[in-house]
């Protein structure tokens, strides 16, 4: 393929026109405070921040109270200590720590996104060292977000266990107490209701291999179904957190590319500017 001089001149002229148009747009952009503020706002990182905070708040808020009551009801119903009471305090503290850590980490990622957005990027990442530091920081946070995404995927999958278990228990309780008679009316008599944990794959203590709940203990266990919606809401909250972290991951990858290619674009603009100045002097 042969490239003629007129093609090169045409490309150079077109580049100058585009650069001039962009310069005029930048001047109008600087004169408009609203557009300047919008250009410095990391909308993608802000959206990821909101999704992550909302998901974490729903997850922690819906699980803080049901964790304690559910474990206590299970221990009382089966008359055995399935979960140590000390673990209840640890789990509730873990929920608080998750809320604090995710809130702080999301805010840090929002700041990182702000530094790599629009005009702020050209003001912060100017020299070689600053760009290198920005790339290292962005790469580090990308790795951390990836690890946290895997952790939250495990949490989301684990949340399906109590949700499905409570769903099965709710239908078991409904089938036990609402028994249709021959006349079609529900049977109000107390049925002989028993539940064996081993039937549903729940591990039983070695010192109580035949543990099961019947009658009023079964009623206490059925009271767990009042927390079903909260556990499902916690599952939805964990899904929001996963979506927010995926969004953060995309933003960090884009910011890394912007920081890396920012110098090339700056050098290209400087070359076009020098070319325009030389052409003006020649005229």
UniProtKB/TrEMBL annotation:
Superkingdom to which the source organism belongs: Eukaryota
Entry's Gene Ontology BP terms: neuron projection development
InterPro entries found in the cross-reference section: Myelin_PLP
TM segment ranges: 43-67, 87-115, 136-169, 231-254
Recorded GO CC terms: plasma membrane
Keyword annotations: Membrane, Transmembrane, Transmembrane helix
Pfam families in the cross-refs: Myelin_PLP (PF01275)
This protein's name: Uncharacterized protein
Organism listed in the record: Rotaria sordida
């Amino acid at each position: 393929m042969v490239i003629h001089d007129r093609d090169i001149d045409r490309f150079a002229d077109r580049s100058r026109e585009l650069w001039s148009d962009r310069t005029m747009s930048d001047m109008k952009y600087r004169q408009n405070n609203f557009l300047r503020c919008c250009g410095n706002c990391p909308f993608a990182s802000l959206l990821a921040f909101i999704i992550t905070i909302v998901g974490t708040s729903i997850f922690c808020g819906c699980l803080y109270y049901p964790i304690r009551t559910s474990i206590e009801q299970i221990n009382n119903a089966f008359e055995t200590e399935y979960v140590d009471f000390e673990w209840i305090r640890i789990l509730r503290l873990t929920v608080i720590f998750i809320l604090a850590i995710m809130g702080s980490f999301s805010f840090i990622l929002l700041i990182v996104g702000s530094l790599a957005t629009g005009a702020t990027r050209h003001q912060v990442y100017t020299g070689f060292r600053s760009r290198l530091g920005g790339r290292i920081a962005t790469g580090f946070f990308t790795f951390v977000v990836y690890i946290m995404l895997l952790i939250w995927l495990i949490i989301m999958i684990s949340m399906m266990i109590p949700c499905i278990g409570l769903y099965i228990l709710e239908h078991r309780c409904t089938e036990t107490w609402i028994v249709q008679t021959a006349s079609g009316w529900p049977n109000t008599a107390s049925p002989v209701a028993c539940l064996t944990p081993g039937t549903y794959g729940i591990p039983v203590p070695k010192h109580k291999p035949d543990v099961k709940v019947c009658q009023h203990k079964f009623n206490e266990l059925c009271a767990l179904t009042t927390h079903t919606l909260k556990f499902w809401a916690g599952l939805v909250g964990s899904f929001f957190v996963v979506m927010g972290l995926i969004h953060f991951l995309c933003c960090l990858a884009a910011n890394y590319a912007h920081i890396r290619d920012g110098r090339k674009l700056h050098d290209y603009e400087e070359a076009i500017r020098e070319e325009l100045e030389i052409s003006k002097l020649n005229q």
